[in-house]
Amino acid sequence: MPHFEEGTTLDRFLLDTMRARPGATGQLVTLLKQVALAGKLVNARVQRAGLAGMLGAVGGMNIQGEYVQKLDVYANDTFKRALEHAGVCCMIVSEEDEEQMLIPADYEAGEYIFSMDPLDGSSNIDTNASIGTIFGIHRKVSAGRDGAPADVLRAGRELVCAGYVLYGAGTMLVLSTGAGVHGFTLDPSVGEFFLSHLDIRLQPSTRAYSCNEAYSAQWDPRLQAWLAGLKEPSLGWSARYIGSLVGDFHRNLVKGGVFLYPPTAKARQGKLRMLYEAQPLAFLAEAAGGAASDGHMPILDKVPTSLHERSPLYIGNAEAVARIVEVLNS
Length: 330
Ligand code: P6P
Prior knowledge:
By secondary structure, the chain is of the alpha+beta class. It folds into 2 domains: 10-197, Fructose-1,6-Bisphosphatase, Chain A, domain 1 (2-Layer Sandwich), CATH 3.30.540; 208-328, D-Maltodextrin-Binding Protein, domain 2. It is built from 8 helices and 15 strands. The protein has an 8-stranded mixed sheet with strand order 2-1-3-4-5-6-7-8, with helices on both faces. A 5-stranded mixed sheet has the order 10-9-11-15-13, sandwiched between helices. It has a two-stranded antiparallel sheet with strand order 12-14. Bound molecules: 6-O-phosphono-alpha-D-fructofuranose. 6-O-phosphono-alpha-D-fructofuranose binds next to loops.
């Protein structure tokens, strides 16, 4: 890993690490700079969300005379607007949109497909808990100008980049292009993301688990037994759960932990979506030395068959994920 001095901006990092890549056209760097711009715009609105609440229910008129949009609609529009004209994408897939979005004919299309959950955990906005934008980026494989579902209904190992913008106590952009996972923290006083977490690594083992235990009675009995076994006091495990995937994942990435969202009676295929939640976070987890599984196979080997397909998700430190898979296949 090259050395980066104090105060390295996102732009400098992207140029230094990606300019030298054979065949680099600069499109991916441009795409990620637009993601950073959209993240700053969404962050500014998220930070004022409480005020918007004070100025009337979402959807009412605010003090500037503009309609207060639901934040996840605002986030969706902001990321699409930042990407549709940049000449770097040929399709955008969003949790907010049933169908994929193609680039308008009057804009130049590029070679990348951007899949996103524009504001994961948005139900937590009223509690000031961490929320975020999760994204995955594929390079186009289909012919012609426009992207097609076949460009994203692929194994997550074919992603060229994945990451998230976390709107929390601080605002961070965390991403990987396959060579390590790196975190950039926004300094709002200058409006720049600065490298703050170079090459984040997940240690092999952990003693922290993250799940909604209220559903545990609906889980596979073998998983229930595994969880019960962790509670032996001498083992020293602890539980942490925000209820915001991006916040739970980030905490586990920087401090260690295993997140699990097993199938439940209400979500028989699991709740979380493959394209813009499980795959991007699995890409990051493996790039940081961790693992991600659906309980039977690595998430990154699983090929989704529809844009909004859901999956069970077990993700975090490799030993804990391996143990869960062993338990579920014993
Ligand atoms: P539950 C948020 O709504 C979300 O999609 C993820 O961010 C989070 O991990 C999950 O749902 C929480 O689900 O069933 O525990 O409320």
